[in-house]
Amino acid sequence: MELLDYLIVLIYIVGMIVVGLYFQRKAASGIESYFLGNRNLPWWALGASGMSSNLDISGTMIIVALVYAIGARGFYIEIRGGVTLIMAFLMIFMGKWNRRAGVMTLAEWMKFRFGDDKEGKLARLITAITSLIMTIAMITYFAIGGGKFLDEFLGIPSFLGLPSEFWAATVLITLAMIYTVASGLYGVIWTDVFQGILIFMAIAYIVIRALSIDLPEQFLVSMPLKDAAGGGFKAYLTSFKDWTSIIPKWNLNIESDSIYSMYNLFGIAVMFYLFKTVIEGSGGTGNYMIQRYFAAKSDREAGLLSLFWTFLLSFRWPFIGAMAVWGVSMAAQITDPEMVLPVVVSTLPIGIKGFLIAGLMAAAMSTFDSTVNAGAAYWVKDIYLERINPSADHKQQMRQSYMASIIIVIIGLGLTLVIKNINDIWAWITMSIGAGMIIPQLIRWYWWRLNGYGYAIGMATGTAAAIVWKILAPEGTPEYISFLFSAGLALAGTIIGTLATEPTDEKVLLNFYKKTRPFGLWSNIKDKFSSDFISKINAENKRDIFSIFFAVPWQCCLFLMWLMLAMKRFDNFLILLILTVALSVILYFSWFRHLSTEVREEKEQ
Fold it and tell me: Does domain 3-594 have CATH number 1.20.1730.10?
């Protein structure tokens, strides 16, 4: 970078710190303020913040790499991460279900679902521990990507025997941690909103520039090789028509020496990703994503923030498509697909380069700050106050909030010295450790008989299975095997633990159903309420079930539409635009116009 680029980045960094520190006093009034913004943040800010939090550098580098190497079909591999489909479920019903609990963390939600006796406390503790493990894994993932990206530009040398990528990640994370630790969710949300504006300006520039690029009918793309094949990278020939096709193929026919040959059984992989993320969407989410819904003011605002979040998030895809197109046009300079993003940025003019690097740093910081803030809440609310010092005063609570944030970051950063590949850690997070949590989190909504013991045993078993898999699994094992291993053991643990112990107290279940109003196997509990109350709930549930069958394809069409625009496949863009409009009309009548309809809680049991 030149002096002007550094100056632009410096102005951005100072601006972020100033905004974050501005909210320090408001956030420090208590942990309710620090972790949830006193549930007084506007829905549009929560939605914009959510969008910024999903636009991390690591994830963007992975998806750009996959789209660059595999083409538009790389979109379907992103489904494994869940964001593509989870937002549809959060928008239609899962967001409001979580908001109705009135809690601060997913672990605290366990008290709402299983009660405050032994089973509830055990479920809460196990959820807090597993969520902290996931938080640390996510920070490691962000640090690897952020370090790889910034190392290309900052010119930081290796020091104390540690690689330059580690120090680049340390710089990025330290800067983000200053305002995250100081200002809590207030700082996270409002810095994310500011960063979102910067991100959109960067997206607009890249997409407009990429639309001037015309790719040849045939070209080469680079893919990483397996260690058994000697490592390194190799160029493969593809065609523009095949590269821009959005029709899934049953088999990709990638040469077996490439790491990406793991996606050769593409039809099976895509069906499995769809299956996995439908389960995940139906079971809700956790960490920084669910925190937005715990902070929402009402059911209506939970729906509105989801809609706004999803719409804004769709603009990630023209950016990814544009970067991939640009990467193909620079084939001679690309070896590692995961480096397409920084290589493209390095070719930009002075000033524009600094602006775009600031935008991508904003993307990294907005994801990082949300993850740290949500992760620290599990320590403070669900472990420290619940089991170590329930009578802690305000100063002690805030001190623990700051300390937890810092320690989580240090551990996550340290793990980057062991794990080097972004796709490797992301695959483990989404298809292994995430799989170990997915089954108990799904069943908790839909089966009244699930108790806290079954949930805790299932979560602990699944998480332990994922850690064992990470240590012992051979290289190149298909991702669906890791999913089945972790999810299968979690399912067994959940069922056995539930049936071997007594059901949850009926009063707890009645309160949960009365407030949450989920669909599923709740007949034993529903019979305790008046028929008028249940009929209103049934009407709401039927609308939600109907709407989700249109919300998922709506979101996929919306995202793919922008990807096709960036790749200049205007025929596909027009078809997807028509489908998106048609699905939007259906969702307006089946879901949107009912957002303000509230089902009042039953007052008599």
Answer: yes
